[in-house]
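Subject: Sanity check before I submit

Could someone independently write out the structure tokens for this chain? I want to compare against mine line by line before I put it in a report. The sequence has 131 residues.
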Amino acid sequence: MNKKIKLMAVALLLTVTTAFAQTTKPAWAQMKMFHSYMSSTFHPAEEGNFAPIKAKADSLLIVAKLWKASEIPANYKPKETKTQLRMLVKQCKKISNAVNANEADTVLKNELTKAHDIFHTIAGECKKADE
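---
Independent answer below. Compare away.
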């Protein structure tokens, strides 16, 4: 009898663990890191404060490259995500170049908005439908 109880307990534990694993969405650390840089530069720029993007443009490019090099989680469409990540790195390079060339704030805002839109495409449209 004791053996049956142990087997039932193990079976229950496996069932609960499997169910939990299937409902838990994988975290994408590199995406979260990029988002922190994006939000700390984009939102101030929306309000006319370009100091954060001028200070963090190179870092934004670095974290975009790190994100692109990371493994794509299973709940994202790999082909679409890779394409968008390539576009994001390219756009972040444009931002870095614009900052280094002392481009006008309107140019920075335009380029940063494009990168922000690409980020949201990855975070939203590149996810698989069942997620």
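---
OP: Matches mine. For the report I'm noting this point. The domain at 26-125 is CATH 1.20.120 (Four Helix Bundle (Hemerythrin (Met), subunit A)).
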